[in-house]
Design a protein that fits this description.
By secondary structure, the protein is α+β, with helices and mostly antiparallel strands. 38% of the residues lie in helices and 24% in strands. A hairpin with a 2-residue loop joins strand 1 (64-65) and strand 2 (68-69). It is globular.
Length: 168
């Protein structure tokens, strides 16, 4: 009987210790999470989110809807959704805004490419959606796969790259 009482007393003391520790840990966690700052959703982020809504949409020359989209149509439509008026064609987009060095690109900037063999004439465009050291991701509409995201470091896109421009 005494041993049973002793065991019961030990179990209760362990339970009470654990309980107070959990309360302290919960309080620490609560205090820690309350200090987390949430970045405001930028205009570029809103444009990117809108463009991502077209991922998987098939390519259609001159297209600007979910039924079909071309590369400049994606840019024109995404920016227009946030009241930023841009030219409709890749050629006209390639002189809009300001030229920027590739090392200075940010979300929302435009990347231009020359995809025809033996030509440096711009004929393709995409929107930068993520930038980290040595990593630039962009969304664009390709003739073969429709609206997709790609990395500038992919061999094809790296060698086709011509310029970057800032329109925001």
């Amino acid at each position: 009987m005494r041993s049973l009482l002793l065991i019961l007393l030990v179990v209760i003391s362990f339970i009470s210790c654990k309980s107070s520790k959990s309360v302290n840990e919960k309080q620490k966690h609560k205090n820690h999470t309350s200090k987390v700052e949430v970045k405001p959703h930028s205009r570029a982020d809103s444009i990117i989110d809108f463009a991502k809504g077209f991922e998987g949409v098939r390519y259609k020359y001159g297209g600007t809807t979910k039924k079909g989209m071309d590369c400049s149509g994606l840019i024109h439509t995404a920016f227009k959704s946030k009241r930023v008026e841009l030219p409709r064609t890749t050629k006209d987009l390639s002189v809009a805004g300001d030229w920027i060095d590739l090392k200075d690109v940010k979300k929302g900037d435009l990347l231009f490419f020359a995809t025809k063999k033996n030509s440096r004439k711009v004929n393709h465009v995409g929107i930068v959606i993520d930038v980290r050291v040595g990593y630039i991701e962009f969304i664009h509409a390709t003739t073969s796969q429709g609206v997709i995201t790609s990395l500038l470091s992919e061999r094809y896109w790296y060698f086709a790259f011509v310029q970057a421009r800032r329109v925001l």
